[in-house]
Amino acid sequence: MEPVTVLPRALTATAGGASPGDLDAARAQMGFSLAWHIVLACLGVGLPLLTLIMEWWGGHTQDPSCRLLARRWARAMGVLFAVGAVSGTILSFELGLLWPGLMGIYGQVIGLPFALEGIAFFIEAIFLGIYLYAWDRLPHRLHLLTGVPIVVAGVASAFFVVSANAWMNQPRGFTVRGGRVVHVDPWAAMFNPATPPQTTHMILAALMVACFLTCSVYAVALLRGRRDRYHRLGFTVPLALGAIVTPAQLVVGDWAARFVAHYQPVKLAAMEGVYRTGSHVPLTLGGIAGKNGLRYGLEIPNGLSLLVGFSPDTVIQGLERVPPGDRPPVTGVHLAFDLMVGCGMFLLTVGVWLLVLALRHRRRPGPWLEGTGRPLRVFLALGALTGPAAVVALECGWTVTEEGRQPWVVWGLLRVRDAVNVAPGLATGLWLVVAVYALMTVGTVYVLRRLTRDRPVPVAPQESDVEEYPVV
Amino acid sequence: MLADTTLAVMWIGVTCYALFGGADFGAGLWDLLAGGSERGRAPRRLIEHSIGPVWEANHVWLIFVVVLLWTGFSPVFAAVMSTLYIPLTLTALGIIARGAAFAFRKVSTEVWQQRLFGGCFALSSVVTPYFLGSVAGAVASGRVPPGLAKGNLITGWLNPTSALGGVLAVLTCAYLAAVYLSGDAARSGEAHLAAYFRHRALATGVVTGVVALAGIAILHADAPQLFHGLTHRALPVVLVSAVLGAVSLVLLLRAEMTFVRVTAAAAVAAILWSWGVAQYPAMLPPSVTIGASASEPSVLGTSLGVLAVGAVLLVPSLLWLYSLFQRRPAPEEDRRGS
């Protein structure tokens, strides 16, 4: 397989004066704040959809449990959106504070998706304000409609931001001449080859994280014996939606991996621990990087060649194709990839189990999830684990994307060490940021837990009780 | 031409952020100064109601400005962010603390939580505009050279002009917030609250005017190029700002709360535009101009086109948001008042 693209020669170093400690601090700070924000971003995409479904269904059936759930989720959404909005703003600051060498040269190339994201985020913020605060001021149908732009803009935001990240993997839409960027085509940069697989993969991931995290909360309550309709609905509706998305994600994930094999073979080599180019490459599960290959892993003969090209004769490029200084770290990328796939398989299993339960339920009328049998408890316990598993898969996926691109910030063009801010003392900034985020984490978790206990759910919720529960 | 248009659109974003986002910060200052939990309950409730539905939308103007700066003038963005790394990191942390704490306080029910989150919200509402103002002072006084972190990392933002910028930012935020809040209280028929904020608007209005006058002397000594621009090319705008400021004070004295919103906002906007006019065409005075730092026409044209299309969606939505919450529920139907 030949490399598909011929990249222009690397730009000359623009900075390169930062100490190794400061470079590591900058990378740690960026990684940390991205890892934090991405969970909130996922909830920002998925939770409005869940809430809208619940509100619509509650209005349709006049089911008070649905309506109460919708209000509770809306309230959580308000808190999460605020925290997500500020942690997202910090990222746009950090792009300049930590990586001025990237932004000074390429800021104009990747500006377009961020401008579009700004518009989408603006729409999200405006309609979230209307949706949350005008719950009792607008008629039911109109109120539902004000939620639709939140969902659409949330998905659009995810698309735009991830397209900028895709550009870092497949830089397009400009020419480098004499160390300067010329002939910029912002649309070509935004719609680079990596955009379709990466954005689709991320949008589905966002839905999965939101669905599984929400269902986890109610799985715990169900395990503690609160089996009323309110908790059953809070568990099954998000889980069902997550279970629908998961198989689609499997297909898209396969597409994304195949894309990497063709367009960023070095990254695939790190993901799968392939050291030497060749055919009949096995698929290695687990294992850590040794001198000549992965050690302690479980090998499936011909597995990788079969997966990439459907034939054992498929040639897979190895790490030896690039100089040692241009190789991503193998152990971390490989294990993160395996862990992500493992979590995905786990989520698929829980989804299938739900399907089996649903089919059985059709033949045996009666309320869902009744009884105290061991299988049901195991199912609920696994359900409670789906949220953490989805988050682990999400973080691992981003680890693969970002670590797998190392040592480049713009693949093949600009190294991370040449993009970092040369101002001294970045390590101090890291500790400050970590401290503030730790406090914000404690605050968010505490407030969200308070929200669930805020008002005990009435045994037989009356309409008036539901209406009295304020959203904000 | 495209670069000038981009800069003008960005400056409109800066103005909107100052007028809307700034007032949200100012409300935080009044929250801080509202006194104990008993005495401060009424003003704090008004503040929460007034900024609750809109602060996130207002906050987006900052993101808008940041993105437009890096898209339209990438080297300027890199120079400002790298040299002013310290105040901008503190700004970022202030933004986090303000937004998160405000959201947390809104859903807290116990007094100690409301005090903790409220204190955090209020304190960061004062600190954040100060640092943003000091960044403006750093750029305006020519302390940010082109290149990565080429300026002085400490005196770049700890200097007379930055201090003036920071103090003016905090004062104008507080002034706008008091004017808006007084109007909000008057419209919902809470006369005592309206008077409470009207008195504060008057006081901060006078102080802001005095600081701005004293600032001229500071600029003369510390930022001669900016001083020259303000007293020559930008002089008409400066005078407009002074006149509008004086008119606003008269209107406040006569409790004309509807009209004073417009004049007070216009006076603050004129301060920003006088800076812009005085500095034009320099992006990073003294040497870096718009022409030298602007992105390619393809980038500027595309961004402007996208923003124009976006505005068609945004403007009606924003107007609907503001109009929906102009009339807040009277206190007796306010369920979370106590």
Automatic annotation (TrEMBL), chain A:
Its main location: membrane. It comes from the Bacteria. Keywords: Cell membrane, Electron transport, Heme, Iron, Membrane, Metal-binding, Transmembrane, Transmembrane helix, Transport. The chain crosses the membrane at residues 34-57, 78-99, 105-132, 144-168, 202-221, 233-252, 335-357, 378-400, 420-448. It is a multi-pass membrane protein. It is found in: Cell membrane. The keyword Cell inner membrane does not apply. Belongs to the cytochrome ubiquinol oxidase subunit 1 family. This is Cytochrome ubiquinol oxidase subunit I.
Automatic annotation (TrEMBL), chain B:
This is Cytochrome d ubiquinol oxidase subunit II. It is found in: Cell membrane. It comes from Streptomyces glomeratus. Keywords: Cell membrane, Membrane, Transmembrane, Transmembrane helix. Its main location: membrane. The lineage of its organism: Bacteria, Bacillati, Actinomycetota, Actinomycetes, Kitasatosporales. InterPro entries: Cyt-d_oxidase_su2. It comes from the Bacteria. Signal peptide: none annotated.
